[in-house]
Amino acid sequence: MDGLLGGFSALMSPDLWALMLVGVVVGIIFGAIPGLSATMAIVLFLPITFSLNVYQAFTLLVALYIGGVSGGLISAILINIPGSAMSIATCYDGHPMAESGHAKRALGIGIVFSFLGTIFSLIIMIVAAPTLADFAVGLSAYEFFALTFFALVLVSSVGGKNIFKGLAAALMGLACCMIGMAPVDGAVRYSFGITGLLQGIPLTPAVIGMFAVTEILLNATKPIKPGGVDQRKIEKIRGFGFSVKEMFSQMKNFLMSSVIGLVIGFLPGMGGSLANQVAYVAAQKTSKHPEKFGTGIMDGIVASETSNNASIGGAMIPLLALGIPGDGPTAMLLGAFTIHGLVAGPLLFTTSGNLVNLIFAAMFACSLIMIVVEFFGIRIFSKIIDVPREILYPVVLAICIVAAYANNRTMFDVWLLFVFGVLGFLMAKFKIPRACFVLGLVLGENIETNLRRAIQLGHGSFEEFFTRPISCVLLIISFVIIARTIYVQVRSSRATKQAAPKE
User: Fold this and answer.
1) Spatial separation of the C-alpha atoms in residues 397 and 147, rounded to whole Å
2) Which end of the chain has the lower number of beta carbons within 10 A, N or C?
3) CA 313 to chain centre
4) Domain extent at residue 395
5) Does pTM top 0.85 for this prediction?
6) Quick check: is 500 in a domain?
7) Cβ count near 418 (within 10 Å)
């Protein structure tokens, strides 16, 4: 506690507060624009830190991280296009709520629980970082494979009305991960002689195409209403648009989603892109009214935004304690440590304890700045929904093209953007869940890498998958979920067919 107070004391400098304000605002903008992200914000601002001292540098980078993760909810809610993969699940209920005329309420829910999720994870990070880090170190390729497989099955089982379509979409995503160099031995697969495919399918143009371009194509097929498009009556709200009673009714959901985000966040290679979907599924599975999910229910927004922001503190644990980044932004922060002549890991707490405490304090302060900025921005953000789509979507498409090109500075990524846009459009028409495809694409490399490593460790045997307690339990639960979901669906289908003649 004394160390944290010392961090806040070191933070009491006008230049650091100015950097935090700028960083949070810029991070929110990067998070809100489809194709950009907290990772890209840190990448672009990393060279600027060369001229800053170490305190100023990490204050700015932490602010960009927190603002970027939270900012994704804005586009997810208002135009059904997630700012990043961390906000995919926010679209499921956030946009339907906005479409029903409650855009400000949806934004308010997302903002508040983004803040609470961040604060929760920061408290746990400070209190339990050593213990959690030790636990993560004890996990092997067997556990990582089982966890990733479990997450994929869990999301696919509720990714749509048809589990077969959900699993098919996930397998399509996994198949796309087979393109390019293999993650273990570097063997080239399915590149068809195309140089751009040697490094595999880049995630940024694929995700942007699957959601942003697809959404534009879907809206382009709808008739334009006289007097503008999508001009809905937006309610006037007080505060954040929901009552204290409603907030406390979400405490169970909040705590569960926070834990999910925290745990998945501190597992290296996982991050908020997985956490938000797992938390959403968990909230739906434990809800008294699961049928309302996807219609604009508060529970879905709470689960998604709490978990992806809780992953911030989780991802910082292995970074600071072990020198292992938990996600993309923390990988960039690891680079920042190197640039400034520091080594992230256990020794950081003894050699640069003041800096660690400053980072803790800055993350708390940035969270407060984030909720204040977004609170006053609700009225501005919500006006996006009034912009006629013949104006809005060309602008969004232009931003998507720039973001895809900026990914690797090649036109090949732009063409991939449109390929996945068309694929997403066809999937939407045939009611194949796009989120399951993206999740398969996101997790594909992790699944393959850990599977191959586990097989190598077991000398070709699969036995240890079922002799190690954690991996065994996760795999058994996964198979049970698949079997149960198929059984329920088949039974429901038969009941429908039997009832049809009577009608």
Assistant:
1) 36
2) C
3) 14
4) 2-493
5) no
6) no
7) 17
